[in-house]
Structures are given as structure tokens and as C-alpha cells.
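Thread: manganese (II) ion complex, take 2
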Amino acid sequence: MSSDLDLARTFKEVWAELSGIGRAPDGGYLRFAWSPAEVALRDWFRAQAAARGMPVINDGNGNLFATWSADSAGPGGVLTGSHFDSVPHGGAFDGPLGIVSAFLAVDLLRELGFQPVRPITVAAFAEEEGSRFGVACLGSRLLTGAIDPARAAALTDRDGLALGDVFGAAPAGARPDLVGAFDAYVELHVEQGRALTQPVGVASAIWPHGRWRFDVAGEGNHAGTTLMSDRRDPMLTYAFTVLAANKEARLRDAHATVGRVEVTPNATNAIPSAVRGWLDARAADEATLAGLVEAVAKKATERAGRDGTAIRFTAESTTGEVRFDEGLAARLATLLGDVPILPTGAGHDAGVLSAHLPTAMLFVRNPTGVSHAPAESATDEDCAAGVRALARVLQELSSRPLVDHDEGVAGHE
Ligand code: HGY
Ligand code: MN
Ligand code: MN
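Output below.
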């Protein structure tokens, strides 16, 4: 049985295979869905699966599934995995850690001579960050029917390329045949915060959250010849909206971020004609989130009236509160030695799958607590502890038929 040191070394070696893929010269990673970097990671996934004799299927939505099973019945049983795509200049661990850990957990179980009664399937979900087509967890939403494939096909990236063009056809959409074959989903993910004081934890919930695009229309004009009193400057309304979001979030112990803006014509010496921004808002409960977004929209609209501009909010991607299967979370936390159970403000494919399957998440400690930025980190030792924990969980959940889909997760004998 691999010692902790061996496992940390193995993790480091496998991790090094990915670490150069999609690395940005000015820090972090650029691994947008179906970009050359992400396609290279998909190729890596297929090679890892092939090396383990795990057949791979694509569900027609861009999600990959590699399965270890006694017969080659295809994807099913206990699902694990995560995503490869990143936010622009994101960290190395957000997503790929869950996929690398899944393959290494299979190795560990095989080293033990373990043979799963239920299959173990490793997934690589597409476009989890929504960094290219704007909708978070696009792949898992398509798989579960949470988004209309025609709407998804029409989504465009920043170059105006539609998802349907990338696919060359409409995404397959809902695959109940696949989802119905899974007993449970367990996603391992780097912690995106600093709550963990030990290597591994279990998730209890995901905050409700979403992203709202706001378009401000004003009047383009000359920066040098237009009197201040004659201006209808959308940048003013935009700036006020950003400050209002920050203030309203603080008043509610919620989180609000405006990290992306597009200005037309984006010229140094021209008053913009339009400014487009995106509000990422999250809160511990749905009422607080709704109150936050409503307050921001109200204040921004009042300000637009004073600026002579017009503002419009459009919900682009929203996710309700996710409370993971309590029994499963408690069972896994106990199994792993009474590790902490904690909520997160970050969205995950596990949040989407939890509406269809008993679902759990394992978190691996991130000493910096930073995520969605180059400083995201996790030690080899903690990642090895995550692999060991995931292997233990997969062993437990695949050792016997787990789920009577009507009854939910079978209890612990
Ligand atoms: O934005 C999120 O919460 C996740 O990392 N996609
Ligand atoms: Mn992320
Ligand atoms: Mn993630």
C-alpha cells in the first residue's frame, strides 16, 4: 500500500503532466472550454483512462466519462471527477484537482486489490466556469436537462462564436439514460477559502448565487468639447452600480463582485455610448440574494435617471441554494475520521447533479485560501490526503449496490 510519502510523490509526478498546459505567461491559466489548452487536457484524460483500461464516452454535451467496472457496461455506479476549464488567469487546482485525484484514487484501490461491485466513473464536465459561453456548469446543466440545448447552442463567446459552431451541431441535451445509471456523485475540489485547518473536509451546502449582466446606454460624445452638464455618461452609472453592489452586499453579509466590463467605443477621448458590466452576487440564503440584487438594480436605475442614461439587468446564470445530502455528508465525514463539514460560496457541477443524485463534495485545504487567481495553492501532502480520502469514499460507495433511486442512499450497516 502506497505510503503517504509515495502518494505525495506520485501526485506530484502526475500533476506535473498538466501544470504546463494552458499556463499564461503573465500568471495563472487560460483553459477555456474547447480551447487548445482544454482540448489538450481532454486528450490527457483519454490517455489516463486508456492507460487504466477505462472506456471513455462523450455524452454529446462535451462531458467525458471514463468507467472502471467489472463488465464494460459503460458509465454508471459512483460518479466522481470535476472540470478542466478555468477562469482567465485562474489557479491550477480549481477543477483539475478533482479529475487527477479521481484517477489516482482508482490506482490506489487497484493497488489494494479492490474490485468495485458498482462501477466507478470519472467525469470531466465541460464549461464549469462559464468563462467562454457565460453560463456556469454548462456541461452538467446540459446533461441533466437544466438548460435547453438550443439556448446553449446559441450562446456565443467573446469572439461571437456560437457553442453550436464549436460543436458543429446542437448539444445532445438531457441524458437521463446516463444520469439514471449513477448511484451518487462525489466531487473532490480544492477549497476556495481558508476554513479548513486540516487536509480534507466535506461540503454541506453551496450558497445561492448568480451572474447578472447590466447594460447602460448613454450618449457617445467628444471628451474635450462636451460640457459636463450636457453629458449622458454611462460610465458614471456603471461606476455607481459597482459601488452600490459593494455597499448593499456589506449591509447583508453577502458577496457582490463586478469583475468584468465592456465599454463602447472604449476610446480614451470619447464619452462612452454604452457600458456593459456583470454582477456576480451570492448570499447565504435565497431571500438575502434576491434582496441584494433588487436593491442594486433599484439604486442603479435611480442613478441612471439622474445621469440621463438607461440601465437594464439580465440574469445570465443563476443557481439556487444547494444543500448536499445530509446523511451522505455525515457518513463520509465519519468515514474520513470526523473531518469538518462546511458550506461554500463557490458553485460546482456537484450543485447541479445534487438535484438528481445523492451528491457530496470533498474539499482539499488551500493554504492561501485564494482561488480564481494564480495564488491558488495546495500542498502535495494535502493533495495526497485528498486522493486517499476519495479512494476511501469510492471504495465505500461502490462496494455494494448503493442506491434504491426511490429511497436515496442506502444507510450504513
Ligand atoms: O464561480 C464559481 O463559483 C465556480 O468556481 N464556478
Ligand atoms: Mn471556479
Ligand atoms: Mn471549480
